[in-house]
Design brief:
There is one protein chain. The protein is of the alpha/beta class. It has a single domain, classed as TIM Barrel (Alpha-Beta Barrel), CATH 3.20.20. Helix content is 42%, strand content 19%. The strands form 2 sheets. Strands 1-2-3-5-8-9-10-12 form an 8-stranded parallel beta barrel, surrounded by 5 helices. The protein has a two-stranded antiparallel ribbon with strand order 6-7. Strand 6 and strand 7 form a beta hairpin. Helix 3 packs parallel to helix 4, helix 4 crosses helix 6 and helix 7 packs across helix 8. It is globular. The two termini are 12 Å apart. The relative contact order is 0.14.
């Protein structure tokens, strides 16, 4: 099992020195990956997003490129980028550039998105986000693997252009598809390398893998997409949720003493999950650093 940390670049004012310190501690304590998340604006009335993402949220690709400069060995992932918010050729170029600058460490987590008000503010059709996402993934994959390309789709068309740079990873960085719906799992099978939902149980992950295995068999895909999970982490006696989360941990299987968390991790491993991304957005900076140390010493050891 591999473990990553979702970097808290939102919810409280963050200085560059704090991000550098967080990255150094994540790598020092042996985590395998570091992750960013994506919102451009937060619409009124979305409770969870209002609580976590509304204030001080740094833009995802900007933080992604910053990580390429200040990290040394951890994989760098997005959990997740909303595909329809940005031009796919621009995304392909940004991701390829980050892959080059990081020495081939990018994992591209991408999904269709869910906050209708955010789509409306950006002038993006919410009802068509699934079809837009599928087409944009095809553009990105082709841009990564071809020196010259043209494209003619429903949402995006252009004549022959020359694309660069090529990513270090070929035919491109792995694409992990976010979302818990059957449409998301179909997207993972048809256009992705992995499935990356948030907050599912081990039983739900196992059921999802079985569904994707059936899809793979029908589509003659040899290998079921890799499975990863993003979920909150709260270690009893160490982690201290703050703000609206003070006194409660939120909905997560990884809440309790280290021995219980180890048992829960084993359940996900048995279900086929290979990578767990731990989210500590509810914690203060000091509690975040303590939790990293405690996980490395008492859960992963």
């Amino acid at each position: 099992m591999k473990f990553g940390v979702c970097l808290t670049h939102y919810g409280r004012e963050v200085r560059s020195a704090e991000l550098v310190e967080a990255v150094a501690e994540i790598e020092r304590t042996g985590f395998d990956s570091i992750w960013v998340t994506d919102h451009v604006v937060i619409p009124e009335g979305v409770r969870e997003a209002q609580q976590i993402y509304r204030e001080h949220m740094l833009e995802a690709f900007t933080v992604f490129s910053f990580l390429a400069a200040v990290s040394r060995r951890a994989r760098l992932g997005s959990s997740i980028i909303v595909l329809a918010y940005r031009n796919p050729l621009v995304m392909a170029k940004m991701l390829a550039s980050i892959d080059v600058l990081s020495g081939g460490r990018v994992i591209f987590g991408a999904a269709a998105g869910y906050m209708e008000g955010e789509f409306n503010a950006l002038g993006v059709p919410f009802e068509e986000r699934g079809d837009v996402s599928d087409e944009y993934l095809r553009v990105i994959r082709e841009a990564w693997s071809q020196d010259e390309m043209g494209f003619s789709g429903r949402y995006f068309k252009f004549d022959k252009v020359y694309t660069s740079p090529r990513p270090v990873q070929q035919p491109g960085p792995p694409i992990w598809i976010g979302g818990r719906s059957k449409r998301a799992m179909r997207r993972a099978v048809e256009l992705g390398d992995g499935w990356h939902p948030i907050g599912l149980s081990a039983a739900e992950m196992k059921e999802g893998r079985a569904y994707m295995a059936r899809l793979c068999e029908r589509r003659k895909r040899a290998r079921v997409p890799d499975m990863s999970l993003r979920a909150n982490l709260v270690i009893e006696g160490v982690s201290e949720p703050v703000g609206p989360y003070a006194g409660r941990a939120g909905n997560t299987p990884f809440n309790g003493v280290p021995s219980l968390i180890r048992e829960r991790i084993a359940e996900f491993e048995e279900a086929g999950v290979e990578h767990i991304v731990l989210d500590m957005a509810t914690l203060s900076r000091a509690s975040f650093l303590r939790t990293l140390e405690a996980f490395a010493a008492h859960v992963r050891s």
